[in-house]
Design goal:
124 residues, mainly alpha, Four Helix Bundle (Hemerythrin (Met), subunit A), 5 helices
Length: 124
């Protein structure tokens, strides 16, 4: 009976350790670049959805962009990037309210800023 509990605890611990590799995916420069690129991709998709009048698609892509942003760590998670993501949130809120024109405008602004940040910070 005691061995069963011990093996259950050990199995659980191994599963947690195995899963934690995904949680810290952006701890290295390649992971940061990957999630930064995915953030850019989702912002562009949100912008395209907003231009097409798809408020739900727009908001969903902005939400995915925010999830990828959360994986960006270290020096890449600069104040400039944080400000761009704050602006992005206004685009998401606009789309949620049905204002796809503002959602698209914000997406274009954020895309330009992310492109500039990427050239400056990630090309080194």
């Amino acid at each position: 009976m005691k061995m069963s509990k011990i093996s259950t605890v050990l199995s659980s611990a191994l599963l947690v350790l195995a899963a934690s590799g995904n949680v810290f995916a952006a701890e290295n420069s390649e992971g940061v670049k990957e999630h930064f690129g995915l953030t850019q991709k989702e912002v562009k998709a949100a912008t395209d959805a907003a231009k097409a009048g798809d408020a739900k698609g727009c908001a969903d892509h902005y939400k995915q962009a925010k999830q990828h942003y959360k994986e960006i760590t270290g020096n890449a998670a600069s104040m400039r990037l944080q400000k761009a993501i704050d602006v992005m949130q206004t685009g998401k809120e606009a789309c949620q309210a049905g204002d796809t024109a503002k959602g698209a405008q914000v997406g274009e602004e954020v895309t330009k800023e992310l492109d500039a940040i990427g050239k400056e910070s990630l090309s080194k």
